[in-house]
Amino acid sequence: MTRTVLPYDSVVSGRTDSNFLVEEFMLLANRTAAEVITRTYPSCALLRKHPEPNMRKLRDFEAFCNKHGLKLDISNSAKLQRSLEHIRGELKNDSVLFDVLMSYAARPMQLASYFCSGETDVGDYGHYALAVPLYTHFTSPLRRYPDIVVHRTLAAALEAEGVYLRRKRMLGNVGREGTLGRCFTGVHFDKYEIECAEAREALASAALKYKVPGTETLADVAAHCNERKLATRHVKDATDKLYMWVLLKKKEILYCEARVLGLGPRLSDVYITTKWTALTAEWLDTTSTLLLSQSTTTHKRSTRKNSPSKSKTIEEIALVVNPAELKLDMNSEAIPNTTNNEPAFFPLTVHLLSTIPIAVHAIGGDDGPLDIVARLYISSYFH
């Protein structure tokens, strides 16, 4: 960004082994915190769950992978993750295709959400994506309020444990040796210890001290956090789009490649026309391909009886250049074609996962809405 907080370039950020290592420790910390607060405060622990995906969409994804010779096991989340890792290895020479598959894999997934343990059946506590029975957010209290609630609950559990153990030692019932004494938060969790009257009294007192919310209050907190998290996600998406729009508006055009993710017979009725030329789209059902061709006659056709024409100008869906004029002016502000993408030409046959050249640019602004559009990058002597 510049000093005026405007974007001037973009880079692809990569992840190193150290990033993955830190992430694993964070996941372990979150899981451990979830286990401790659920043991000590089973009716008022703030947890995070991720329900199972939409099975119909997941089976569609499995069929899509099988169609392209990729084996996918969707019997549970752990096997699904292992399958995707195996596919990553198979597609190590085509990382773009793997990214496409990951975008498909995300479609059946439902949103994760916060919840109060006392308001949800134990069988619904699990986190599908992480394949764990208990999970919460603990590691980022500086930017997430749920983490603060979890910290308070964990602090109460630790203090209650200390008070309880001191009382037991005074009575001579517990030794002072290491972690064996940690009956609330340690590895050797003792369910009977935590259910005794002295333990419940210590936990209740600590909950008051650290302001641990009750079941009803915590359920309201969880609902509010879910609402705010979804709103934050929408703001982030809108902000990312805005910054990309500003960058593209300044640079004019970004030439790149794209993969075809959706294709079907409904496209066979779309005709894109101009005054001089027409671009027709013909769906070939036997091969599941789309044939784009250019003719010198102008025609329009409605896709439905008594419906308005679906025709569009060719400029709306394609950036057409004359082969003799492909060289850009050296003074042009357009983003250089760093990937050396050559324009396509007619007739163009497109099938699912085809790689096609596109031109991305910003539209709108002033008094209109902002948007980013991608057009087919095509070459034609008729232009």
Describe this structure in words.
This protein has 383 residues and is of the alpha+beta class. It has a domain at 252-298 and 313-326 and 344-382. It contains nine helices and eleven strands. Strands 3, 7, 8, 10 and 11 form a five-stranded mixed β-sheet that branches. A four-stranded antiparallel β-sheet has the order 4-5-6-9, with no helix packed on it. The protein has a two-stranded antiparallel ribbon with strand order 1-2. It starts with 16 loop residues before the first helix and ends with a strand. Residues 176-180, 267-278 and 296-309 have low confidence and may be disordered.
Q: SSE string, helix = H, strand = E?
A: HEHHHEHHHHEEEEHEEEEE
Shape: elongated
Q: What is the tally of beta strands?
A: 11
Strand content: 15-25%
Q: N-to-C terminal Cα separation, in Å?
A: 38 Å
**For the report, how would you describe the main beta sheet?**
5 strands, mixed
- Count of discrete alpha- or pi-helical segments spanning 4 or more residues: 9
- What structural class do the secondary elements suggest? alpha+beta
Unreliable parts: 176-180, 267-278, 296-309
Instruction: Indicate the radius of gyration in whole angstroms.
Output: 29 Å
Task: Give the % helix.
Answer: 25-40%
Q: Mean pLDDT across all residues, rounded?
A: 81
